[in-house]
Amino acid sequence: MHKAVIAIHGGAGAITRAQFSPEKELLYIKALSEIVEAGQALLAAGGSALDAVTEAVRLLEECPLFNAGIGAVFTHDGTHELDACVMDGNTLEAGAVAGVSHIRNPILAARHVLEHSPHVLLIGKGAENFAQQQGLEPVSPDIFFTQERWDQLQRARANDQTVLDHDEPINPDTKFGTVGAVALDQYGNLAAATSTGGMTNKMPGRVGDSPIIGAGCYANNANVAVSCTGTGEVFMKTLAAYDIAALMEYGGLSLQQATERVVMEKLPVLQGSGGVIAIDSEGNVALPFNSEGMYRGYGYVGDSPSVGIYNSQEH
Question: Is residue 194 flagged as an active site residue?
């Protein structure tokens, strides 16, 4: 029997303390803690890693604090296009959806793709039709609206119109909202899940790393489960999630060494910012990030959750 553990993230980026009230910080800490606890409870009851990451990400999608599901950011056209992926480390089965606007919980649609389709990735209308056939009720995109995300879009649009080459873009408004979960269950199985609303002001039709196997999400019982958050295009170019697994499998690196190599060395070369959450087959946890902050938390079954936002900060 293995010591079961779950880790989650709620995005990474320039989360500066100066822009973050203590009250808001506590809201995030509370949400992260509660979702870790929900994952721990599921694992403690003998649940699978696959079920634990699916449920943790569903809860993150339901929380308007995070950029996935309810609270997702807007495209340039003021619409929502959501992506999600889930992978079973035991079987290497995976399911993903991209560019969906009428599915309340994209991670549940991704899970149905994994279990009930011969494919790995479905997009747009086809993904929505499949989800409906699987019993997921379609929703109006209005359900994803939050005033804060709408205001972010207006600022980003204005920024695009006035930004000078040397001006710093407003990172908190344009970057890195993704949610994810990784878990090891008591049977020794790993799983990973990732979900996102994408980038504020993104071109309609843009798909990032989140629903791409090996880029934003990867799990293999042989070594590691990984969920990524950050500059999606760079995570895609580097196949960041799979690169961690490959460094462990072929290079003999430990979880800590492999995640640090990718996040702290390889991504920054291409101006890639963000982080990963990862659990290896022994139950070790790594949560490295090269940005100012990353909403994150983890907990072994029987222990209290450990959560944080900034560097060297765990509650």
Answer: no
CA atoms within 13 A on the CB side of 103: 37
pLDDT the model gives residue 24: 87
Global confidence as pTM: 0.93
Instruction: Give the pLDDT score at 132.
Output: 98
| CA–CA distance, 269 with 166 (Å, rounded to integer) | 20
Report the C-alpha gap between 297 and 4 in whole angstroms: 15
β-pairing verdict for 274-280 and 217-220: unpaired
C-beta separation of 37 from 208 below 8 A = no
Of 95, 124, 93, residue with least CA distance to 110: 95
Annotated active-site residue in 75, 174, 178, 259: 178
Residues 6+ apart with CB under 8 A from 45: none
pLDDT value at residue 44: 98
Residue 54 and residue 44: Cα distance in Å, rounded?
A: 16
Strands 217-220 vs 82-88: parallel, antiparallel or unpaired: unpaired
